[in-house]
């Protein structure tokens, strides 16, 4: 949802930054890797230690930094297929680290099974939502749409975690447990999005055509069998 509504205004900011980064000698792929490594490091160290506010700030900064790889590629005249696969793969790794770090915190700091369940649902569905679209497109189908995409997920989880950290540091009761409704709202909307994506694939033209396996009986290969004398 946010990826569609915010794409045009965001590009006005990222385009000049992408051109500037290109002049430093960095490549789009290196920016992808830098953003992912720091995001993962922050998620698996700061979240489990209970630094929800600072963890959210660091992750937000480097998620935004990671968005510049596309702007850099466009400024160079276009990206590569390898770059697109690398970017998508790194996004999945970063998402897994974010929810994994929060899951660790839910178990060992909060000792709350319900929060753990919500976080694990978010972890799994975040991967499935993205995979469903990628697999559909690889089959020539469409799986666009749905209530929750990656920008939406990141906003909900980072706002929930960040403000929970603020609430606990400054003893603000209405903020110190914001992560609980945030994770459950995200979990429910993500499950709905999985079904929306599957239905979108089902409705795509050609989705229910029979897959015909190639005929391997007429390969033109010489017969290697020999007759007995």
Would you kindly provide a written description of the structure presented here, covering whatever features stand out?
The chain is mainly α. It has one domain: Up-down Bundle (Four Helix Bundle (Hemerythrin (Met), subunit A)). Helix content is 71%, strand content 0%. Helix 3 runs antiparallel to helix 4. The longest helix has 30 residues. The termini are far apart.
Rg to the nearest angstrom?
Answer: 22 Å
CATH topology: Four Helix Bundle (Hemerythrin (Met), subunit A)
Provide the CATH top-level class.
Mainly Alpha
Can you say what the CATH homologous superfamily is?
A: CDP-alcohol phosphotransferase transmembrane (TM) domain
Residue share in β-strands? under 5%
Tell me the overall shape.
globular
Q: Total strand count, please? A: 0
Query: What series of H and E elements makes up the topology?
Result: HHHHHHHHH
Q: Which structural category fits the helices and strands?
A: mainly alpha
Low-confidence stretches: 224-229
How is the secondary structure organized here?
Elements (H helix, E strand, L loop, with lengths): L1 H4 L1 H16 L5 H18 L6 H15 L1 H8 L5 H30 L2 H26 L11 H20 L9 H25 L26
Helix pairs in contact: 2-5, 3-4, 3-5, 3-6, 4-8, 6-7, 7-9, 8-9
Can you give keywords for this protein?
Four Helix Bundle (Hemerythrin (Met), subunit A); disordered C terminus; 229 residues; mainly alpha; single chain
In short:
This protein has 229 residues and is mainly alpha-helical. It has helices at residues 2-5, 7-22, 28-45, 52-66, 68-75, 81-110, 113-138, 150-169, 179-203. The chain has a single domain, classed as Four Helix Bundle (Hemerythrin (Met), subunit A) (Up-down Bundle), CATH 1.20.120.
